[in-house]
Amino acid sequence: MDKQTLSRITASAPTAALQTLAEKVTANRRMEYVKGPEKTMILLTVREPVRNSNFYLGEALAVHCIAELDGVRGAAVALGDDLGRAGAAAALDAAHTGGFPEFAAIEVRLLELEELRKSAESETAALVRGTQVKFHVLEDKEA
Question: How many domains does the chain have?
Answer without folding.
Answer: 1
